[in-house]
Amino acid sequence: MSQAAHAYAYLRPSAVLSDAAGPRLALETSGGATPLGAVANPRFFAGFLADPAPAAAALLAVADVAAARYYQPQLRASLDPVVTANGDRLRFESFSGCCGVYARLDVLRAGLDGDEIGHGTTNVDVNNPLREALTRIGPAEPLHLAVGPDALEVTTFDGPVVEKKVPLPERWLRGFAETQVTAAGFDLRAELPAAEAVRFLRSLPRGGGRAGARTAGWVVPVGGTLRPTTRPVPGAVCLPGPDRLAALQRVLRHALALRVYGPAVPGDGPTASAWEVVLPGMRLTLTLSPDASRGFSGEGGVLGALATGTAEQDADLVAVLLAWEPRIEVAELAEQSGLTPTRVRAALTRLGTAGQIGYDTAEAAYFHRQLPYEAGRAEARNPRLRAAHALVEAGAVRLDGDGSLATVTVDDHIQRVRTDEAGRTSCTCLWWAKYRGGRGPCKHALAVGMVRERNGSALSGSGRAGSALSGSGRNGSGAAAAAAGPVGGSTAPNGKEPVA
């Protein structure tokens, strides 16, 4: 599996410090991006947490996910959470080592009492002594929060006091990109009040290990609660591997409500879903892949945008208009850039492959952050996209008739790609027969879309590459429906990704 080493350099370990004013949570930052450019140890906030106990528990939940592997729990992960300051909130994000669970804590303005919140993205150190100290935070004592060093002048000529070098698999970056595409196709499916939320989450099985995490069930909202069901009836939400919600147990005594998000139309097989616990001034959300053996990294939701010839240039234009906004308005970006909303969404999806875009299901809006990855890295290492480019360069694609039918010749095999009037594609290949579009387009459909765009075809659907994944998320995003589709997976049970 391809991966790159990334160094986290901190001035000192994060810690809970005690002084006359009470405990002080000092979260140390690594190198990060800010409006002024790259900064070695940026400072984003200093002030008090309005509700210390739930904030401490929620931070621990995010750290739990960062340290977990749900599919192969015997292997430990060690990925420091990411913090983004959006001017009016702090977002703490993490991904499980198996790429199947994405966690985000949004500490909103109501949850913070202090100076101005900065703008930028960095990693924060979460170590074992800090975790132990956070478990001792009581509800009655004030908790001061500092995100970033108190004084940058403590840096010495010997360099940082603490340095971590960790491998970052390509699947981890691709998982961040796919998660925002998948979540953009979710709708709010259920909202439970505090008592029912606690009852439901405490009733879930725990400690099931690898087999339990792979179990996919369904729940349906009934009278203010969630009832299990054996099949995806209308209105049902998939709960793929209830063990993977274990991190929410930390915050149950502080929960105000539970919100559940999922695709508007459930399919025949397991789908991704998002589970949000509402806390005082905060939201803690876990997004689950359709199965623990299916990390988000191969869901295929970004492929349409990556395959378009205009998306790269559009992404460069859109990127200069972003400024760590907590809400990215597609219509406003379209007006500023002169692009259509469809091209703006494709550009945002492409920026997501470099870790620059996330999606907030609670607000049905994208947000800006900037992970420390090279643009285009995920694209270059996507096997289906590479295979599609190879087919185009080899002249393997022939458009037939009006372009709704195409023939793709691979060695001595012939595959036929058909596009219906609604722009939906199908293919005769084994990939399509197995996943039915649930993991995005196959390499043949991608190649056909590239050729159609190159020829200037007006045919909708995969002829525009990105629209083959069109759907109807709450923000009108077209990229998410297939990624949250009913069938498919990103990794095989042996942990290797199948190639289309």
Write out key terms for the chains shown.
disordered C terminus; alpha+beta; 24% helix; zinc-finger; eight-stranded antiparallel β-sheet; 500 residues; zinc; Arc Repressor Mutant, subunit A; 13 helices
Blueprint (SSEs and pairs):
Blueprint: E1 3-10, E2 15-19, E3 22-27, E4 32-34, E5 37-39, E6 45-49, H1 52-66, E7 82-86, E8 89-95, E9 101-108, E10 112-114, E11 119-123, H2 128-134, E12 143-147, E13 162-169, H3 170-183, E14 186-193, H4 194-203, H5 209-213, E15 216-222, E16 225-229, E17 237-240, E18 257-263, E19 273-279, E20 282-288, H6 303-307, H7 311-319, H8 330-337, H9 341-352, E21 357-360, E22 365-368, H10 377-380, H11 383-393, E23 397-400, E24 405-410, E25 413-419, E26 425-427, H12 430-435, H13 443-454
What does this molecule look like?
Helix content is 24%, strand content 29%. With 500 residues, it is an alpha+beta fold. Mean pLDDT is 79; it is low at 151-160, 209-214 and 458-500. It has 13 helices and 26 strands. The chain has helices at residues 52-66, 128-134, 170-183, 194-203, 209-213, 303-307, 311-319, 330-337, 341-352, 377-380, 383-393, 430-435, 443-454, and strands at 3-10, 15-19, 22-27, 32-34, 37-39, 45-49, 82-86, 89-95, 101-108, 112-114, 119-123, 143-147, 162-169, 186-193, 216-222, 225-229, 237-240, 257-263, 273-279, 282-288, 357-360, 365-368, 397-400, 405-410, 413-419, 425-427. Strand 2 (15-19) and strand 3 (22-27) form a beta hairpin.
